[in-house]
Design brief:
single chain; 184 residues; mainly alpha; two-stranded parallel sheet; 2 strands
Length: 184
């Protein structure tokens, strides 16, 4: 694996931050958008035909890109600073050799060796049960603080509510819900 990392460049290292993906694209009119609300806004602009001159849009749900996500181990701005430092250290020139990538591709390096595991249960086909589940999720979500803090391990309160109803999480994982119950 060390040999493969040797061919990385600052472009590859910076991929996780907003604008990192488009930094590898030359000669095209590109746009980097980060944050879920901004992503929705810009998808609507595309649907309305307001960005006709743009050839490629990089969307990141998290502000600052993946390095600004809820599960980032350090502060998002610290992660961005460190990533920028590594990009400067390794440079932005493209060091990937096409022949090397072709050899990796032909050897099967980029294919999955096993079937990917499903992390969530498939959606219930029984419409009555699905509606009852949705009502339970909505009821629990309304009790949650809707702070989207991610401290419970879920990316947002709605996902946490779904995970609790599906038995993948326990309600006590929400700090705010736990504190609210301790007051009662």
């Amino acid at each position: 694996d060390e040999v493969i990392y040797h061919y990385s460049s600052g472009v590859g290292i910076g991929w996780a931050k907003s604008g990192g993906e488009i930094s590898a694209i030359d000669g095209a009119r590109t746009l980097a958008v980060s944050g879920i609300k901004e992503t929705i806004t810009y998808l609507e602009k595309i649907e309305l035909g307001l960005l006709n001159g743009i050839e490629y849009v990089e969307f990141r749900a998290c502000h600052e890109g993946c390095i600004g996500g809820k599960l980032t181990a350090v502060d998002k701005y610290e992660a961005k600073r460190r990533t920028d430092r590594l990009v400067r250290m390794f440079g932005i020139e493209k060091r990937v050799r096409p022949q090397y990538v072709r050899k990796l591709y032909e050897s099967g390096f980029f294919t999955a060796e096993r079937e990917l595991a499903t992390l969530v249960n498939p959606v219930d086909v029984d419409i009555r049960r699905a509606i009852n589940r949705a009502k339970e999720v909505q009821s629990l979500w309304e009790l949650l603080p809707q702070k989207e803090c991610g401290a419970c391990g879920s990316p947002d309160c709605m996902t946490f509510a779904e995970d609790v109803i599906d038995g993948l999480q326990t309600p006590d994982r929400c700090f705010f819900l736990r504190e609210m119950r301790s007051w009662n």
